[in-house]
Amino acid sequence: MKLFRKGAIDALPVFVGYLSVGFTFGIAAATDWKSSFIPTLASITHISGTGQFVLVSLIGDGSTLAAIIAGIVAINLRYVPMAIAVSQRLEAAMPPWKRLIVAMGDTDEIVGISLRQTPPLRFPYMLGLFVCSWCGWVGGTALGANPATQALLPPRLIAALGIALPAMFAAIVFPAFRESRRIKVAVAVAALASFAMRAVPTGIDPGWITLAAGIGAAALAAFLFPKEPEQGNGQGGGQ
Amino acid sequence: MSHRTLLGVVLLTAAITYALRALPMLLFKRPFGNRYLAAFLDALPYALLTAMILPAIFYSTGGAAYPARPVAPAAAGAVTALALGYMKRPLPVVALAATAVAYLCDLLLA
Description:
heterodimer; A: mainly alpha; 14 helices; about 75% helix; B: mainly alpha; 2 domains; about 0% strand; extended
């Protein structure tokens, strides 16, 4: 119980961040999907700001199911190395069912906190991190998606709130952009490709343009700047 | 997209997201050896997010109130977001500041 409480307290800053970001996701998704239940369900089950943003963006573009699935796999692929990094630090005796629960709360922020702790990571601590951050994410979404909240906000403000999610993702990309040459190349190439492929009327589905620009740019950046041999973790980052 | 289809898409993609988190927890206990793969996975989320927000962020303050999708408030908000992001401000601060600038710009132009 003591460890659970420590986890929950360590996750308090994440709780506040998720509450506000979840709120803006709730508004955006509820406006687009004309439902307050489905956005909340998405936050309960996905617990991934980036993944849920991909959903809103690709569904809004009228993408095919194949493009939506490819987009979700591509944006959430970073969880694979992140989960491995956490997995190595969990106490060795932790049974698989507890590992499966820890996996649910494996967001960028929670992984970030976990990697800063001295291993081994114990189950109650991980559960505290997960439950606290999850409550913020789901609570924020439910508030934002609620028709009563939306009725309180003027339409102009709701329109302006459309920029909140892309703004947040700009805040994820740019600090990393400053830190690493690999990410500088990836971001610059992805931006150019995304603009260029949309400027020329090719008739390609917008979802596939996003994927092609993103995956192509990441592959080029990885080819030019492969990872240094001893660096094992530190991937991902952001929401 | 009907609500039933939407529900199916949300749950299916949630299952995929969970699988990406859960399978490595059970299967792998060591980091990736291949440095190209590790670098690709490192750069991928940033590249994808960039392709997703550019140029879409410039049309992001459209919505039901503005079918004409005015670019000026969104552009002001986007510049705010890029600048504050570059200055490494926390995510909620950037999101709220960009929203506030877009909103104010919209009120001034109205």
